[in-house]
Design a protein that fits this description.
- With 294 residues, the chain is α/β, with parallel strands linked by helices.
- The chain has a single domain, classed as 3-Layer(aba) Sandwich (Rossmann fold), CATH 3.40.50.
- 38% of the residues lie in helices and 24% in strands.
- It contains 11 helices and 11 strands.
- The strands form 2 sheets. It has an 8-stranded mixed sheet. A 3-stranded mixed sheet has the order 1-9-8.
- A hairpin with a 2-residue loop joins strand 10 and strand 11.
- Helix 10 crosses helix 11.
- Keywords: Methyltransferase, S-adenosyl-L-methionine, Transferase.
- Pfam families: NNMT_PNMT_TEMT (PF01234).
Length: 294
């Protein structure tokens, strides 16, 4: 059985041959023209202006829709190998309308909780749990399966993930407590105060517009992790907005240094010479795992 280090190193070697789709000059010109017609919203307007299906169609229709998603989906399975083989409670914090994290952790996490700030996203997550989703995750499942070499069908992958889902939570990383309410939960489920693992991808910097707000967002995320537990974080560096469909949203221009500073300030391991921290960066996209110090 290969170690987590060997798996990540193997994926990094494979990344050298991975063709990340890059925009052609004419596509860049088209994108610039499109931005002139898109409405620019503040980060705090996600609750009222976010359109889940437009977002999913823009970034997840196929695994090649977006270079950032190619990076995250490529490295996520390898990063997850650094987690304990069995996880009692896992929270996907600020999942938006996405379910690729529950699908990826379906064999490791027994109780999976998902969450978002925007009601429209919580409704989309709930519809997927009930197998009523308007979006087809088949292509993303096939991409995850190709990295895992699991030989499971998309239906099997989603079925197991759904069986592990426990609740959809209303969250706000700028408030205490971060979990503000329960949008949906299965019968007999108690909501933990802290989790063994918290995952958060394209969330903390997208929820913020300033470094101070990002610091608060990281503090909120880390408050949900048990001592000795883990944070799996993915995001974008050096970007001040993101766009899809007819919408653009402002975000904090995050740096690599800020990522590590904020983790360290909240009692998280940032020493890459230990087994408690690993960060991978490519094309200004990062994914990391950090263990909360005891």
């Amino acid at each position: 059985m290969p170690s987590s280090n060997e798996i990540v190193e193997s994926l990094e070697h494979r990344l050298e041959n991975l063709q990340i789709d890059k925009e052609k000059p004419e596509e860049i010109d088209s994108e610039a023209t499109k931005k002139q017609t898109q409405l620019l919203y503040s980060a705090k307007e996600h609750d009222t202006k976010f359109k889940p299906l437009d977002y999913l169609e823009g970034f997840y229709k196929t695994h090649k829709e977006d270079g950032a998603m190619q990076m995250i989906l490529f490295f996520l399975p390898g990063i997850l190998y650094r987690l304990p083989e069995k996880i009692e409670n896992l929270l996907d914090l600020g999942a938006g309308p996405t379910v690729y994290v529950p699908i990826s952790v379906r064999h490791r996490a027994f109780n999976i909780f998902t969450s978002d700030y925007a009601q429209c996203n919580r409704e989309t997550l709930t519809s997927w749990i009930k197998n009523e989703s308007p979006f087809d995750w088949t292509n993303v499942c096939k991409w995850i399966e190709s990295i895992e070499s699991s030989r499971e069908t998309p239906e099997m992958m989603q079925g197991l993930a759904r069986s592990r889902m426990r609740a959809v939570l209303n969250v706000n990383v700028f408030k205490e407590p971060v979990v503000q309410g329960v949008h949906f939960k299965k019968e007999g489920i108690d909501i933990p105060k802290q989790f063994d693992v918290v995952t958060t991808v394209f969330c903390l910097e997208y929820a913020s517009e300033t470094y101070e707000e990002y610091q608060q967002a990281v503090k909120g995320a880390c408050s949900l992790i048990k001592p000795g537990g883990f944070l799996v974080q993915g995001g974008v560096l050096e970007a001040d907005e993101y766009s899809f469909g007819e919408s653009r949203f402002k975000c904090h221009r995050l740096t690599r240094e800020q990522v590590k500073w904020c983790l360290e300030d909240n009692g998280m391991n940032v020493d890459q010479s230990t087994n408690g921290f690993r960060i991978i960066i490519g094309e200004d996209i990062f994914i990391l795992i950090s263990q909360k110090l005891m």
